[in-house]
Every structure is written in structure tokens, then in C-alpha cells.
């Protein structure tokens, strides 16, 4: 199977009535800018997210797209509460998780998983693959044996022998599959996928995306898929949110945004999709 | 789906790692000699015989059979004294370095991982501690606590924990920024569990390398304190006190000074090389 099958999958029905898993209203977040810190007193703060409001419908794949520095990863990390917002509400399943402390979040974390951009640094180099996958299971009392890890590996298309490997013994695509296996092993409701294919070559990208799409459908997952590449978003996502400098410039169903982009930023990103330009003698 | 074969990963062919085995060979010899000192030593290290004073080593003219490395100014066998001296050297190095390592690494891990007030308090303490001149500090401590092995070990641990705290703090801060720490959090790990089961294994090679270095340093510090007669009673043979005694007779019996010095040098060198060798051997990423 290739990318071809991805493009041919029918567009998900426009679910106007889809229940929202996340409801985010007026989300603001700033970081202290230590480069401009005066000798005395606190550093001035740089606003990274300037009042975002969006919904993430349950059971769909929502793309979050933008140039680097647009705040897309930061927004994603607020959803899984690796970061806390300055103000605004982050309703997960009706509960505001924006200001919960770590102890209160821990039971929720099982349902809020994440796949990281760099699978090398997100897999502990000193743990074997099976331990990386099994440890969260053990923490939540969902088993955590080597057999559980091997079952999860099977779901992402890796043979059992990989359980005994260390992360540096895998290729980039295989590492990212392990990252996916770790996330889905917990049977979560939501997965944040943060630029998960940007470090992979094109054929691994297609395989990993296809796998994610299959798993999402089988398990009824809600996914927020962060990318700077609109062509990837188009193949994978049902809805898309376009960010620019910490603000939402456009959001809606993928088909609509691609057909009739309203903002300049979206048009620029669309124009940046590389198209094959083949003419006779291009190899010369 | 693309076929993913489970071919065994490539491993670098094992070459004999000299950095690992040469130090182990020497330290193993010293350790065996120290453990079985009464059996191995050819003579009583304390037995004086003025008829046999300043005998040269066996490869020189005028030597006496059975006294391979010669005798000192009181007619005591140098080899036997060195073998008994190894006991004290190794005992001090193992106990003092382990204490220093435990104490300093724990503080470094906590400061590097929890940051905030933990880091501020521990780092300031390290800064203040390091402003004391170490030799003066050691001499003062031993003078206050009285001579003896306990004081020597306490002096080493109290002075050198800062080395571990600083290096391990920096290393922990680097590791704490890695994504696997965030992913442990996503996987529901508590902070302390993350520190112990995720970060510690990655900092361990540095801890081991430092521990080996510290064992070498402990041998030197013990020798220095013996040299100035602040270690243990001058009856017990130590390498430091042998060097001190040999210094007086260096013009007519250089071997009394030279052989313990070589043992000291080789032991310290072995410890620091072993640290590097172990790091190479047990790092899955470097292999």
C-alpha cells in the first residue's frame, strides 16, 4: 500500500453534531523572555498564545498547522497539560483541566497520550523497547508484562523480536512506531501527534501516517495532529486549524479550507506544498 | 505494510578494551594482595632488624634473598609493608569514595531535576563549600576529630562531595530537558519515579566515571595525610608514610621511596582509566 490509498479514502462525513472532546476558550500563554531580562526585576513575557478558541470533535482527526513559531506545539502541549495556560479554559470532556495540579491530572493522563516529534529523545536510550511500552501500563494497573508490550508492537506492525531492542538499534520509522505503540497501548481517548513524521523519509512518512489513520479508525481515537505540512494534513485530517503568531487565522473542515482558503497565511502554506514538476529532460 | 524484518542489530565487533582490562589487572592484583596480606607478605611488615637495614632490591648487588624490594632504614621489608599498605589505601578509597558519591550524587540529582529552591540552596552550599581551601580543611578536620581512618574518610567525603554535586547536577539538567522525561509524565509517572527510573540510568555512566576518579583521589588524599602524619598511627604501614620515611633516606636508599610511589601512581592512574573504560563498556549507545 502507498500514499495512493491514503488519498483515496473518502472524506469523513461533515459532522456538525459531533460531540467535542476538547472545548478551548480564549487560551492565553506566555513565556518569560530571558534574553530581554533587565538586571533587576522580572523578565518581560512574550505572548505565545493570544486567545485561542477552538473545539476538537470526538472521534475525528484535527490538524493544527502553522509555520514554526506559530504556537502550534505549545497549544498541543496545553491540551495534554505538559504546559499550563495563563488564562482561559481548557475543557476536556466538560471538565476544566487547565488549572489542575499534577496529582489531579495523573488519573486523566491515561486518556491523554502524546507521540513526540523526535522519537530518539522521547524513548529512553537505556530502556529496552518492551519496558518503554509496558511501564505506563503497569502504572495504570493495565498489565505491563512483556506479552502486553509485544501485543502493542504487533498493532503497529513490529515483530516480537523488537521487544528486546534498545531504541538506538531501530530506524527512525521503527522508533516512531514504538512511540505510537506506547501511546495506543493505554487505549487512550485522545492522542496528540506532534510533528511525528517531520524527521522521517518520505516512504516511512507514508507508512506511519497510514498506520495512524488505521489505528484511529479501529480504536475510535480522537487525534490532534500537529504539522507544518498541509499536504500531510490534507491526507489525514477531518478538520484543520491554521495558526499564525499565536492566533487562529482559519479553521474548518479540511475540504473547505483547501477549496476556499480565506486567509493569506493559509494560501501561503498551500502554495508551499511541493508539486512534482516533470517535463522532458528534467534529469539532464 | 512494508516488510519489517527482525534482523539482529549490528553490533560493533568486540575488541579487547585495554582501558578496561589493564586497570582491572593492576587493581585486581592490589585488591588480592590487600585481602590476603598476612598470607602473601613474605615478612612481618613491622619487624625491625637493624642487621638488615637498607638492603637494596634483589636485582642489585648486595641484596639479601627473600627481600625482593629491599628494606628501609629500620630493616623492615619494603614489599611486605607495601602489601599491608595496600589494605589501608583500598579500604579508604572504597569507603570514602562510595560515601562521597552517594551524598554528592543525591544532592546533584535533586538540584538538577527539581530546580527552584532545591537548586538554589544546594548550589549556594556548593559555592560556599568550595571557597574553603581543601587541604587546610582536611588538616583542620583531622586535627579536630583526631587521627584515625574514620577522620580520613570523613575528611574526604566532606570535602569532595561538591565535585559530584556539581557534575551530576549539570548532567541531570541536560537529561531533564529530554523528551523521554515528558513522555514519562504523559505515561503517568510521579516526579521522584521519573528521576530514579528514567534519569538516573542515563546519569549513571557519569556517576561511575566520577566514582572511579574519586577512588583515585581518595588514595592520594590518604597518602598526603599519612605523609604529614595525620592519617593513622605511624606503626601501621601506609604508602604515604613509607614515602615520607623514604624521603629522609633518598640519597642512600631510593627504593624505600620509589616502590610505594610507583604503586600509588599505578593505582590512581588505574582508577581514572577504569572509569573511562567502564563508561565505554556499559553504554549501550556507544557500543
From TrEMBL, chain A:
Keyword annotations of the record: ATP-binding, Nucleotide-binding, Transport
GO biological processes: transmembrane transport
Pfam families attached to this UniProt entry: ABC_tran
Molecular function via GO: ATP binding; ATP hydrolysis activity
SMART domains named in the record: AAA
Segments forming domain ABC transporter: 29-270
Superkingdom, natural source: Bacteria
InterPro entries, A to Z: AAA+_ATPase, ABC_transp_ATP-bind, ABC_transporter-like_ATP-bd, ABC_transporter-like_CS, P-loop_NTPase
Keyword Manganese on entry: no
Homology family: Belongs to the ABC transporter superfamily.
Protein name: Peptide/nickel transport system ATP-binding protein
Organism: Alloyangia pacifica
From TrEMBL, chain B:
InterPro entries documented for this protein: BP-dependent_transpt_permease (IPR050366), MetI-like (IPR000515), MetI-like_sf (IPR035906)
Species annotation: Alloyangia pacifica
Protein name: Peptide/nickel transport system permease protein
GO BP terms in the entry: peptide transport; protein transport; transmembrane transport
GO cellular component: plasma membrane
Listed PROSITE patterns: ABC_TM1 (PS50928)
Domain annotation ABC transmembrane type-1: ranges: 86-275
Membrane topology: Multi-pass membrane protein
Subcellular location(s) per record: Cell membrane
Coiled-coil intervals: none
Record keywords: Cell membrane, Membrane, Peptide transport, Protein transport, Transmembrane, Transmembrane helix, Transport
Transferase among keywords: no
Transmembrane segments: 20-41, 88-115, 135-159, 207-232, 252-271
Similarity annotation: Belongs to the binding-protein-dependent transport system permease family.
SUPFAM superfamilies per record: MetI-like
Gene3D superfamilies hit by this protein: MetI-like
Main location: membrane
Pfam families registered for this protein in UniProt: BPD_transp_1 (PF00528)
Amino acid at each position: 500500500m502507498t500514499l495512493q490509498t491514503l488519498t483515496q479514502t473518502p472524506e469523513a462525513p461533515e459532522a456538525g453534531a459531533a460531540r467535542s472532546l476538547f472545548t478551548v476558550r480564549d487560551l492565553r500563554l506566555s513565556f518569560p523572555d530571558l534574553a530581554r531580562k533587565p538586571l533587576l526585576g522580572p523578565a518581560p513575557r512574550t505572548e505565545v498564545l493570544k486567545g485561542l478558541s477552538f473545539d476538537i470533535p470526538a472521534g475525528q482527526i484535527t490538524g493544527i498547522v502553522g509555520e514554526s513559531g506559530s504556537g502550534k506545539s505549545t497549544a498541543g502541549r496545553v491540551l495534554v497539560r505538559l504546559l499550563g495556560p495563563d488564562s482561559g479554559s481548557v475543557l476536556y470532556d466538560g471538565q476544566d483541566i487547565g488549572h489542575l495540579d499534577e496529582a489531579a491530572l495523573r488519573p486523566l493522563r491515561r486518556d491523554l497520550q502524546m507521540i513526540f516529534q523526535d522519537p530518539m529523545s522521547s524513548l529512553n536510550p537505556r530502556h529496552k523497547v518492551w519496558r518503554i511500552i509496558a511501564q505506563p501500563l503497569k502504572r495504570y494497573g493495565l498489565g505491563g508484562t512483556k506479552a502486553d508490550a509485544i501485543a502493542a508492537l504487533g498493532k503497529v506492525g513490529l515483530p516480537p523480536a523488537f521487544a528486546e531492542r534498545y531504541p538506538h538499534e531501530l530506524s527512525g520509522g521503527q522508533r516512531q512506531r514504538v512511540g505510537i505503540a506506547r501511546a495506543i497501548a493505554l487505549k487512550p481517548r485522545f492522542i496528540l501527534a506532534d510533528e511525528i513524521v517531520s524527521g522521517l523519509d518520505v516512504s516511512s512518512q507514508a507508512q506511519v501516517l497510514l498506520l495512524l489513520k488505521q489505528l484511529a479508525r479501529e480504536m475510535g481515537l480522537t487525534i490532534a495532529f500537529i504539522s507544518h505540512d498541509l499536504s500531510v494534513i490534507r491526507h489525514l485530517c477531518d478538520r484543520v486549524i491554521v495558526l499564525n503568531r499565536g492566533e487562529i487565522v482559519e479553521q474548518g473542515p479540511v475540504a473547505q479550507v483547501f477549496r476556499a482558503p480565506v486567509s493569506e497565511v493559509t494560501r501561503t502554506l498551500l502554495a508551499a506544498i511541493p508539486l512534482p514538476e516533470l517535463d522532458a529532460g528534467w534529469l539532464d | 505494510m512494508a516488510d519489517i524484518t527482525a534482523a539482529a542489530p549490528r553490533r560493533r565487533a568486540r575488541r579487547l578494551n585495554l582501558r578496561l582490562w589493564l586497570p582491572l589487572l593492576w587493581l585486581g592484583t592490589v585488591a588480592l594482595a590487600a585481602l590476603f596480606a598476612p598470607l602473601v607478605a613474605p615478612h612481618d611488615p613491622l619487624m625491625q632488624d637493624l642487621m638488615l637495614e637498607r638492603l637494596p632490591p634483589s636485582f642489585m648487588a648486595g641484596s639479601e634473598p627473600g627481600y625482593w624490594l629491599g628494606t628501609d632504614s629500620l630493616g623492615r621489608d619494603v614489599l611486605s609493608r607495601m602489601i599491608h599498605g595496600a589494605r589501608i589505601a583500598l579500604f579508604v578509597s572504597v569507603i570514602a569514595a562510595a560515601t562521597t558519591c552517594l551524598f554528592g550524587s543525591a544532592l546533584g540529582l535533586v538540584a538538577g531535576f527539581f530546580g527552584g529552591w532545591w537548586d538554589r540552596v544546594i548550589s549556594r552550599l556548593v559555592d560556599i563549600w568550595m571557597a574553603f581551601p581543601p587541604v587546610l580543611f582536611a588538616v583542620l578536620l583531622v586535627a579536630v576529630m583526631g587521627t584515625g581512618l574514620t577522620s580520613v574518610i570523613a575528611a574526604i567525603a566532606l570535602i569532595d562531595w561538591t565535585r559530584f554535586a556539581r557534575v551530576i547536577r549539570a548532567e541531570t539538567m541536560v537529561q531533564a530537558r529530554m523528551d523521554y522525561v515528558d513522555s514519562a509524565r504523559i505515561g503517568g509517572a510521579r516526579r521522584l519515579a521519573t528521576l530514579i527510573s528514567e534519569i538516573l540510568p542515563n546519569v549513571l555512566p557519569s556517576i561511575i566515571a566520577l566514582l572511579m576518579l574519586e577512588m583515585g583521589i581518595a588514595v592520594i588524599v590518604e597518602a598526603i595525610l599519612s605523609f604529614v602524619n595525620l592519617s593513622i598511627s605511624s606503626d601501621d604501614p601506609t604508602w604515604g608514610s613509607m614515602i615520607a620515611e623514604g624521603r629522609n633516606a633518598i640519597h642512600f636508599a631510593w627504593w624505600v621511596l620509589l616502590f610505594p610511589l610507583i604503586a600509588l601512581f599505578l593505582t590512581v592512574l588505574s582508577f581514572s582509566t577504569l572509569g573511562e573504560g567502564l563508561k565505554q563498556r556499559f553504554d549501550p549507545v556507544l557500543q
